[in-house]
Design goal:
Blueprint: H1 2-17, H2 19-27, E1 29-30, H3 33-38, E2 43-47, E3 50-56, E4 74-84, E5 87-96, E6 104-109, E7 116-123, E8 129-137
Parallel strand pairs: 5-7
Antiparallel strand pairs: 1-5, 2-3, 3-6, 4-5, 7-8
């Protein structure tokens, strides 16, 4: 019985120490394009081989469309990307707001992607895509 009590105490201490990380991990969600549009949209800007992804999941600023949703409790957990042929596919993972996290998307280093013209697309959970723009990597 004493061992069980000590185990629970250790578990609760560890849980409180990493609460934001655990809650964020448990609440992470791949957002669809409809969500991105509802919080103000997304645009990408290429600077050398760095792709700046402009969006804000809080819904407090307009990027490409007027926001219709306001979120005070989520942030960007991760901006994911993959290269598939001549496409660069982006997706945004959100989670419950955590320490040190932010509501903006950030940027991607494309220095290892070969020179060429690419379609930058947002990919939904079901695999459908939304074209953001075409870019030419130097």
């Amino acid at each position: 019985m004493k061992t069980l009590a000590v185990t629970w105490i250790v578990f609760l201490v560890c849980l409180s120490a990493c609460n934001a990380g655990l809650v964020g991990w448990l609440t992470q969600e791949h957002q669809n394009w409809a969500f991105i549009e509802s919080v103000g949209g997304m645009k990408v800007e290429l600077k050398n081989k760095k792709l700046d992804v402009v969006c804000d999941v809080s819904g407090t600023r307009q990027v490409t469309t007027k926001p219709t949703t306001l979120n005070s409790g989520i942030d960007v957990r991760e901006l994911k990307w993959t290269q598939v042929g001549n496409s660069i596919r982006l997706s945004v993972m959100t989670s419950a707001i955590g320490k040190g996290m932010q509501t903006s998307c950030g940027s991607i280093d494309l220095s290892k992607v070969p020179t060429g013209v690419y379609a930058v697309e947002y990919i939904n959970r079901d695999g459908t895509t939304h074209l953001l723009r075409k870019i030419a990597l130097p």
